[in-house]
Each structure stands twice: as structure tokens, then as C-alpha cells.
Specification:
heterotrimer, A alpha+beta (495), B mainly alpha (307), C mainly alpha (303), B: 307 residues, mainly alpha, MetI-like fold, 73% helix, C: 303 residues, two-stranded antiparallel sheet, 2 strands, 77% helix, 3% strand, flat
Chain lengths: 495, 307, 303
């Protein structure tokens, strides 16, 4: 009794304490953080404008210590900025988007004024209010009409815009030019002959495996990437995942024959053809590595991942080739690519002036739709830095801007720094640029949760010889419907 | 007086550290075999403890091609110790080491003083109400810490009551070291094992609580102090989460683990370089422990040699 | 009126006396109590309170009662998370509980190279968590890992280690045991060194053999620590999260997902702090249950 009493007392004490201090501490203004770091070399020195005001912003993108070229160009940009807008004080910070620490930082109001993230994160970030509503700003700068509507839709909610798309991609196929060559799967000019459907892909994978001895088809299974890849695979067989009903609810439909066929195909790749990589529990970094050391021939991935492979694992830039997604070998098979990319966000606690200053900074970096002499020069500088850092320069994805001339102007600007044979990427870039590539958006609701569930299905067929794709997907559909969609349908919580 | 108590206690420990098997027992052939078996086990332990890191570290010094090749070579064919030096310079580890050292020293002082005193009070003085504190401390062990990360971070941004922002300094790491429920319990159970008679003698001698703590308990506590020292150093050496969150963009303050975390988290660093960097996280604490070990041993066995 | 004051005075005096007696002790506790309060307890309680709220970021938005708990428990992967967490705990008790005790006893017996052995045993504990996870991933790697490379030397087939739904938890526990057993062994050793040597001498004079000495002197002298260590181990393994997160991400097919990893996914992947806190609270309740059960059993044993 006495013990229970003392425990209860202790609890009351702690609760009372918690109640006293519960009101959240006022979030720190990014402007303050910029001021606190005023002595850093990566700052521009600001002079008050006519009204005597200094606008302080912090922006992502501080180059690594080893990145000499990157530091130089940043210095130049800071100087340009200081000359053009003497009243804006810019602090450049190292802010790579990181799942582990984004939430604590965001919840504590510690985001830089300008940061960058992926479309895959858009739902979470926007629904939690970590990104400022920049609709007015977009209108004032005239960007709203220049952004590719497909991208704009991904970062808009109820007609309001929450980010500025800056780079885009469609999912495509990666091929190892080197392994295709070793297996003799190249045309007269030495460019790889690409498979036309999933059956051909499997046969080629086997052929290359026999010729080179290495596993030839890569599929990640971790960190939601298994689900990400599998969604793509199932779409190419004509499958769909979430069906929107007229009453506003969603139904999980990914146990359809097409999706089951896709999972069965993946299972066959592992157990019948035995071409899937040995290390099943891995994510895309493993693919980066395997391609870089010429021990992987085929996978699917967006073009912007190429640099991960080239720079992290010393991959040879001439060993990569890309094509559009290979359609499934069934009557519903289609070549369709997931639309993705990155967008810039403004921290939610920024003022309009700060947000405006961030847009000025973006303009200075040359990644906005306005192509002036200066911004073209900035793009050129970026390409030069990438080239010097051994990154692959020249493969551009789907432009985020509608301006038809944008891409050609940009290509022209960076032409002298291109370091790959662009023809290797022609099959991919052509369909991306001429608009023929069918594009697919991510799952509309509970996307990350669905990916996680699909991760498990993919892991099951790749690690268990006796796994039954139909049964796995039936269960996954049941679970997903019950755990997420029904709850959302009940109206309690819509993401 | 206290010296007398000390020497009395020392004498008690005099003959120790000989273990169960005495010279006399060794005459028994079965015991000899048992002793041999113990040696066998210890050698096995050496292999199990050393081989994994050794293999990984030597792998890191292979050339990149061999490092990434499949299947792996067990004994490396290529050997590039210069990769160590290159990585060190590339990432400017020297500065990071100094930073880590400041975090370590502060944490150590706070950890020993705060946890030690709390353990002492809970074990010996037991003022009214200390039972509540003890049960709170016990409960703390059971509560999953992850739910508290964000409220805690908010407290660092604005200290309760004072309202001061202590991020972008090492203070949060230092303070956190002062509230470790496990260390408190280790201290408490150690102090529990010191005979009450010693304290009563000192009290008769006119010592107050504070002087009993510093003049009697502390000198006797060398072993437990050393153990907690090592634990604290280890914990703050390995911690990356708080330094990463708290230090924010102040790269000049980054510790070794934050650097490593940044490397692992961003593309642009080759995997073999990341593994090379692991060497830097393993070797220094190992050397430190080797160095400390002499003191630990002296803490354990000083009296034995004297006797 | 007078009566009241007269009655109160002795109480006041008693309080004053008590305060005078205890104040020194409380002053000694003060620094760490302040730290505990503001950097451990208050954030924890704040975090736990979240489990009753719908959240935005880490701020409570709307009180929803037990809804988060119901949502979490009805989730299909919850059951496997609970089962796995118990599996982790069980495996780690089987592998990790006796090992440090045996190691400490043996370390205490070895007459030469003591320092070296002690260093060796403690060495894995020095390796930082991130480093150990990366290391063991390389060792368990199905093609280029040390284990399979060694197996290949003997002509044995490659074992899938972390990729096998049956092996994954033992594999992770082996890594955790490797990393943790040294520091526990050192604690036991410290307490073994405190054993009064006279006891052994007395036992020898009585003609006791090695095993009787072990059974009657050594074991009882460290058995006091068993309970603390056991509870500690259960508590820490029950919260296992970091290792499966870095090594397997909970796979394959949720075979290594744990309760706290579920909580982590809610909190950091899906941004549902309320549900994350609910799982945290459930874990906490499990631990309280286990601890109460343990103390109950211990009491029964004692009497």
C-alpha cells in the first residue's frame, strides 16, 4: 500500500511538472540562427536597405569539406548575391534531407529557411505543416504558370502550393553497357540492345549471367524501396494499387491478376532464372555499388541516381546506359514511369520577405524557369563543378518547366561539360523529352505505409522459395485496407 | 582516521584476485585440465572479439576493386595503409577528435559527480522521500527513451524556467551524462556493498555527509569510478544523435561520430572510405582503454601487490 | 486556538528537525535531480501524453483518448512485433545472460595475461554502435561476408544469415551479445574482485574443492548482481530498435521487426507521433508487467 502510494505520488509530481512546462518552447526563428552564426565564412555580409532592414535567410547546400570546386562556386554566388541584394544576408548550411532527424528538427522549428526534399516526402511534409504556403509568392514571381502541371499537382493541396519543383525524373531502366557488351548484346555501333518486354528481359538477364558469371537483375527490398520498385513493376504489368471510389473512399486492389503476375515474375527471376542479386536485404546503395563494379546488368531507377553510383563507388561513367521501363509480357503490359524528383520548400515560420529572398537565391543558383544570361552562367558553373567532381553531366530528366525552349537552352549551356556518350541514354531521354512516356503518380494515400507493406511481400518472394504471391498479396490487401484505408475512409484521419 | 579505515579495508582486500583455483588445487590433474579448458576458452574469446573488427579493418585497406569484389578475400591481397592517412586528411579528423575530447571530458565530470552523488544518497543517506526518487530512477530505465526525444530537444532550445538556448554548444551532451539511471544504480549497489561500520566510525569521528562522501566513499570507490568512467566515455564517444541534432550547422564543432554519420548519410563518399573511417572510431577508444586499464587494475589489485 | 498551536508545535519541530537532518542529503541529490527532471522525466511524460492525442509534428492537436492505442493494436504487423520482441529477449537471455558470468569467473581464474584478456573481452564494447552494425553487416553479407567466405573454404554451402526469416533474430542477437557481453563481464569481475579472499582460504582449510568453493562462495557473492543484470538486460533488449533498423530494416518480411522499431517507423517514417508514443507506452506497460512479475517471483523464492 505504502509503495503504491509513493508511486502514485511520484507520478502526480512528474505529471504536474510536465503540465507546468508543457507549453512548447517558442520555435527558434531561422533568422536568429543566422545571426548566431554571423561569424561563419559561408555568410554574405549584408547592408541594410533603404528601410534599414536586413533580411536573413539560411539555405541548404553547403558543399562538403573536400569539395573545392563546390566551395569556390558558392563563394562566387554569395558575392553575386551580396552585390545584387545588399540587404539580404545568406547563411549556407549543410542540410541533407535525412529521415532520422528531419522530424525533430522540423518540430523544433530548426529547419533552414530554404530546404530541399523529394516528392515522395511531400505528403508527410505538407500534411504536417513543415512547408510554407507559397502560392502568393509563386504568383508574384510568375512561376505558377511556368511549372509543369504534373509536378505542381504533387505539391499542391486544395489549390495552395507548398513548394517549388526544381528537378524531375521518370523511372527508367538502368543497363550496364559493359556487361551487355561482354554478353554480345550490342548493336553494330556498340550500343546495348534493350529488351522489349519482361520475358525478353528475363532471357537477357540469364544470357548475361551465363556470359559473365555475375547476377544480373537488381531489386531492393529495404527502406520502403522494395515497395517503390514493386509499384513500378506492377504498373508495367498493368496493375493498380488504390482505387478511388465515387463516395470519396479508397479500396486496395493490388491483389489483381496483373499485380500477382508481377510478383510471380519477380519470384521467377529469383528462383527459376536465379538472376537476382545475392544480398536480398539491401537498398539502392547496393545497386550503386554493383553497377559501379560491373557486377550488375539490369535494374530500374531514375537517372538522378546515376551519380550515387559513380561518385560513391568510383563507377566508370561510360559503363551506364538507360532506357524506358520495360512493359510486362502480358496483354495489359505498358511502359510507364513513376514521376518523381525534388522540390524546394520554405520553412513554415519564415516571413514573406524571407521567402522572397529565398526565391532570389534560387534565381541566383539558376534553377528557376527564368533563363537569363546570369542564370545560364550559374547552370554552367554547376555543370563545371559536377564535371570536376567526377559526377556524370548531361543526362537531364523531365523538365519541371513548361517552356519548350528551356531544355535546349540548358543543354546548350552545359554542353562543354558533358562527360558521357549521350546516345547511351537516348532511349530514355527521348521519350522523357518528347512527352511520349506515360507517367504515373505515386499512390494517392498512405503511400509510404503501402511501400512498407510491399517491402515485406517482395522480401517474402525473394527469400522464401515456397512463398505464394497470390496469398501474400491477398493478405497485404486485407491488412492495408483494414489498417489504413478503412480508418481513413471512416473520416478520422485523411492524409 | 579515514586513512586508518582505508588501510583496514585494504587489508581485507589484500589477498584477493587469486580466484577460486589456488596453487594447492592445481595439484589435482582434473583441475589442471579445467584450468587448461579455461585458457582454451579465453583464447577462443580473444579470437571471437578480435577477428571481426580485424577482418573489416584490413578489408578497408584493400584497394577499392578488391574491397568491392565478390566473393571477398579473407586474407587481403592488396594493402594500402595510405588510405588511412588520405581519409584522415580528407575529412579533417584532427579537429573532430579535439571536439570529441571536449564532449568526453565534460560528460565525464558531470556523470561521475551527479550520478555518483545520487547513488550515494540513495544507498547511504536515504533521506525522507528518497524512496520516491529511487523508484523514479528505476522507472526511468524501463521507459523507452525514443518518445522523449523531441520534447527534450525543445528543452535544449529553451531551458525550462531559464529560457536559455543551449544548442550549438556541448552543454546538452554534458548535462545528459548527468542523468543516467543505470549508472546511478551501479553506484548505489556498489555503495550498498561497503560496510556500514566504516561510515559509522567516520561519523563518530565527526565527519559530515559531504566529507564522508569525499574522504571515505570516493577513495574506496576507485573500481566503480573506473567502470563508470569507461562506460561514460564509451557512451559519449559513440553517441551521434544528440551532437548531430544539437550542433546543427556548426560544422566546426562536429564530433567524430557526427562526421561519420554525415559520411554514411550522403553520397559522394565511397563505401570503402566509410569503412576506413570506422577504424578511426575504433582505435582511439581502444588505446584509451588500454591506458585506463592499468588504473582499473591498480584500483582492483593495488592492495594485493602491497600485501 | 491555543490547543491547536500547542498540538502543532511538536509537528513543526519534527519537520524542522527532519529537514535539518535530511537537507544535506537532498542538496547532494539536487544537481542530478534537476537534470533528471528536466532532461529525462518531463520530456518522457510529455512524450507519453502524446499517445492520447492526434498529433501534428510533435504537437498535440486534439484529444482522442485511446484511439491511437486501438489503431496500433489492430495493426496486422503489431502481433509479429510483439512476438519478435519476446523472441529477441529470449534469445538474448539464452545467449547473453550466462556468457558474461562465465567470462568474469574465468577471467578471475586466469593467472597470466589477465590485463590482455580483460582488454580483449572489453574491446567489442568499445566499438561504437554504428561501426558495429556496419561491421556485422559486412560479416553476414551473403556473398562477400566473412562467415560465408570461411564456410566456402570448407566447401560448405552459403548460409543466408540475415536474409533468413528464422535466422535473422539470432544473428542480430549474436551481434548484440558480441558487443555487450564484455562490459557486463567487467561489472561481474569488479564484484568478484571484491570477494573476501579469507573465505576461500577458510574453505580450503575445510577441504572444500574448487567446485564447492565456486558453488558456495563465488556464486553467492555475485548472485546479488544477477537480479539487477537480468532486469537490465530484459529492459534494454525489450527496447531493441537500433540494430534491426540499421541491419535489416525489420525484414525479411517483418521477421525482425520489434516494438520499438514499429514505434520508430510511426514516428519518423510516417510522422504519426501519437501512434509512436502509443507503441512506446505499450512497451513500457509490458516492461512494468515483466518487472512486477520478476519481483513477485523473487519474493516467492526468498520466502
Amino acid at each position: 500500500m505504502k509503495k503504491a502510494l509513493s508511486l502514485a505520488l511520484a507520478l502526480v509530481m512528474v505529471f504536474a511538472l510536465a503540465a507546468c512546462t508543457a507549453p512548447a518552447a517558442p520555435a527558434k526563428e531561422p533568422a536568429q540562427s543566422a545571426q548566431a552564426n554571423g561569424d561563419q565564412p559561408a555568410d554574405s555580409n549584408a547592408v541594410p536597405d533603404a528601410q534599414g532592414e536586413i533580411i536573413e535567410i539560411s539555405v541548404r547546400g553547403k558543399p562538403k569539406e573536400t569539395d573545392v570546386a563546390g566551395k569556390e562556386i558558392l563563394e562566387k554566388r554569395l558575392n553575386d548575391m551580396a552585390v545584387k541584394y545588399p540587404n539580404i544576408k545568406v547563411e549556407v548550411v549543410d542540410f541533407p534531407y535525412d529521415v532520422n532527424t528531419f522530424l525533430p528538427k522540423a518540430a523544433a522549428g530548426q529547419l533552414p529557411t530554404l530546404y530541399n526534399t523529394y516528392f515522395t516526402e511531400a505528403n508527410k511534409i505538407i500534411s504536417q505543416g513543415f512547408s510554407m504556403d507559397i502560392t502568393d509568392l509563386m504568383k508574384d514571381w510568375g512561376y505558377d504558370s511556368k511549372v509543369n502541371p504534373a509536378y505542381l499537382e504533387m505539391i499542391s493541396r486544395d489549390g495552395r502550393i507548398y513548394g517549388l519543383p526544381v528537378s524531375g525524373y521518370a523511372m527508367g531502366m538502368w543497363y550496364s553497357n559493359e556487361l551487355f557488351k561482354q554478353a554480345g548484346l550490342v548493336d553494330a555501333d556498340g550500343y546495348p540492345t534493350l529488351p522489349k518486354n519482361s520475358d525478353e528481359l528475363a532471357q537477357m538477364a540469364v544470357k548475361i549471367k551465363e556470359a559473365t558469371g555475375s547476377k544480373t537483375y537488381f531489386f531492393p527490398t529495404q527502406n520502403n524501396q522494395g515497395g517503390w520498385y514493386f509499384s513500378q513493376l506492377a504498373w508495367s504489368f498493368g496493375g493498380e494499387f488504390e482505387q478511388y471510389n465515387e463516395d470519396g473512399t479508397y479500396t486496395a486492389i493490388f491483389n489483381s491478376p496483373e499485380v500477382v503476375m508481377a510478383l510471380q515474375w519477380l519470384k521467377d527471376m529469383r528462383w527459376t532464372y536465379d538472376v537476382v542479386q545475392d544480398n536480398i536485404l539491401c537498398d539502392m546503395t547496393e545497386m550503386h555499388k554493383l553497377f559501379a563494379i560491373d557486377q550488375m546488368a539490369i535494374s530500374q531507377s531514375p537517372h538522378d541516381q546515376l551519380n550515387g553510383s559513380v561518385t560513391s563507388y568510383n563507377g566508370d561513367v561510360t559503363h551506364y546506359a538507360m532506357g524506358p521501363i520495360v512493359p510486362g509480357a502480358n496483354d495489359k503490359g505498358r511502359s510507364v514511369g513513376l514521376l518523381g524528383g525534388t522540390f524546394e520548400c520554405i520553412a513554415p515560420n519564415a516571413t514573406y520577405e524571407q521567402a522572397d529572398a529565398c526565391f532570389k537565391w534560387l534565381e541566383n543558383e539558376g534553377i528557376t524557369p527564368n533563363l537569363t544570361e546570369e542564370t545560364l552562367q550559374s547552370l554552367k558553373d554547376s555543370a563545371k563543378v559536377d564535371n570536376e567532381n567526377g559526377k556524370l553531366v548531361g543526362v537531364l530528366g523531365i523538365p519541371t518547366w513548361t517552356d519548350p525552349e528551356y531544355l535546349s537552352k540548358r543543354k546548350e549551356a552545359i554542353a562543354e561539360y558533358v562527360n558521357v556518350d549521350l546516345k547511351m541514354f537516348d532511349p530514355y531521354t527521348t521519350v522523357c523529352e518528347n512527352g511520349e512516356y506515360e507517367l504515373h503518380a505515386e499512390h494517392p494515400v498512405y503511400c509510404q505505409e503501402l511501400y512498407k507493406i510491399l517491402d515485406s511481400c517482395v522480401q517474402a518472394v525473394l527469400t522464401d522459395k515456397n512463398a505464394d504471391p497470390q496469398a501474400l498479396l491477398d493478405k497485404a490487401v486485407d491488412d492495408f485496407q483494414r489498417d489504413y484505408l478503412d480508418k481513413a475512409n471512416a473520416g478520422s484521419e485523411v492524409q | 582516521m579515514s586513512e586508518m579505515i582505508q588501510s583496514k579495508f585494504d587489508r581485507k582486500k589484500d589477498a584477493q584476485s587469486m580466484g577460486i583455483i589456488s596453487k594447492y588445487d592445481m595439484r589435482n590433474p582434473w583441475i589442471k585440465i579445467l584450468y587448461g579448458f579455461i585458457w582454451f576458452c579465453m583464447i577462443l574469446a580473444v579470437l571471437v572479439c578480435f577477428i571481426p573488427p580485424l577482418w573489416v579493418m584490413t578489408s578497408a585497406l584493400k584497394d577499392s576493386r578488391e574491397f568491392f569484389s565478390v566473393p571477398a578475400t579473407i586474407i587481403p591481397r592488396s594493402w594500402h595503409p595510405e588510405k588511412l592517412w588520405d581519409t584522415w586528411n580528407m575529412l579533417n579528423f584532427g579537429k573532430a577528435y579535439l571536439n570529441t575530447l571536449s564532449v568526453l571530458c565534460g560528460s565525464l565530470v558531470v556523470s561521475l559527480v551527479c550520478n555518483g552523488m545520487l547513488g550515494y544518497v540513495l544507498s547511504r543517506l536515504k533521506p525522507r522521500g528518497s524512496k520516491i526518487v529511487l523508484s523514479l530512477v528505476l522507472w526511468t530505465l524501463m521507459l523507452p527513451q525514443s518518445v522523449s526525444q523531441v520534447p527534450l530537444f525543445k528543452n535544449f532550445l529553451s531551458l525550462p524556467i531559464l529560457g536559455i538556448n543551449i544548442t550549438e554548444t556541448y552543454l546538452p551532451m554534458w548535462l545528459l551524462a548527468g542523468a543516467n539511471a543505470f549508472y546511478v544504480l551501479v553506484f548505489k549497489s556498489f555503495f550498498d556493498s561497503i560496510p556500514q561500520s566504516l561510515i559509522e566510525a567516520a561519523r563518530l569521528d565527526g565527519c559530515n555527509n559531504l566529507s564522508i562522501f569525499f574522504r571515505i566513499m570516493m577513495p574506496l570507490s576507485k573500481p566503480v569510478l573506473m567502470v563508470i568512467t569507461i562506460f561514460t566515455i564509451n557512451a559519449s564517444w559513440s553517441d551521434f544523435f544528440w551532437p548531430y541534432l544539437v550542433l546543427g550547422s556548426r560544422t566546426e564543432l562536429y564530433t567524430v561520430m557526427v562526421k561519420i554519420f554525415y559520411m554514411a548519410g550522403s553520397t559522394g563518399y565511397s563505401e570503402d572510405i566509410q569503412v576506413v573511417a570506422l577504424i578511426f572510431t575504433i582505435i582511439p577508444p581502444a588505446i584509451l582503454f588500454l591506458f585506463f586499464q592499468r588504473y582499473i587494475m591498480s584500483g582492483f589489485t593495488l592492495s594485493g601487490i602491497k600485501g | 486556538m491555543q490547543v491547536v498551536t500547542r498540538k502543532k508545535r511538536p509537528l513543526g519541530k519534527r519537520v524542522a528537525h527532519a529537514i535539518r537532518q535530511d537537507i544535506g542529503a537532498w542538496v547532494l541529490m539536487l544537481p542530478s535531480l534537476i537534470i533528471f527532471t528536466f532532461f529525462v522525466w518531463q520530456p518522457l511524460v510529455n512524450g507519453l501524453i502524446l499517445s492520447l492525442y492526434e498529433t501534428k509534428g510533435f504537437d498535440p492537436v486534439r484529444f482522442v483518448g485511446l484511439k491511437n492505442f486501438l489503431d496500433v493494436i489492430s495493426e496486422s504487423s503489431f502481433q509479429s512485433a510483439v512476438a519478435n520482441t519476446f523472441k529477441y529477449t529470449l534469445w538474448s537471455l539464452v545467449l547473453g545472460f550466462p556468457l558474461p558470468i562465465l567470462t568474469a569467473v574465468m577471467l578471475n581464474e586466469v593467472k597470466r595475461l589477465k590485463g590482455f584478456f580483460r582488454f580483449t573481452v572489453y574491446f567489442p564494447s568499445i566499438v561504437p554502435g554504428v561501426a558495429a552494425a556496419i561491421m556485422w553487416e559486412l560479416i553476414y553479407h551473403p556473398t562477400s561476408g566473412l562467415l560465408n567466405s570461411v564456410l566456402a573454404l570448407f566447401g560448405a554451402n552459403a548460409v543466408p544469415w540475415l536474409q533468413s526469416q528464422n535466422l535473422v533474430i539470432p544473428c542480430i542477437v549474436i551481434m548484440m551479445t558480441w558487443k555487450g557481453f564484455g562490459s557486463t563481464a567487467i561489472l561481474y569481475l569488479a564484484s568478484l574482485q571484491g570477494v573476501n579472499q579469507e573465505l576461500y582460504e577458510a574453505a580450503m582449510i575445510d577441504g572444500a574443492g574448487v567446485f564447492r568453493k565456486f558453488w558456495n562462495i563465488t556464486l553467492p557473492s555475485i548472485s546479488g548482481m544477477f537480479s539487477l543484470m537480468l532486469v537490465m538486460q530484459i529492459i534494454s533488449v525489450f527496447q531493441v530498435m537500433y540494430e534491426p533498423l540499421t541491419m535489416t530494416d525489420g525484414g525479411p518480411n517483418n521477421a525482425s521487426i520489434s516494438l520499438m522499431l514499429t514505434s520508430y517507423f510511426y514516428g519518423f517514417r510516417f510522422y504519426q507521433a501519437g501512434r509512436a508514443a502509443a507503441v512506446g507506452t505499450i512497451t513500457f506497460l509490458f516492461l512494468i508487467g515483466l518487472t512486477v512479475l520478476y519481483f513477485h517471483l523473487q519474493k516467492k523464492n526468498d520466502s
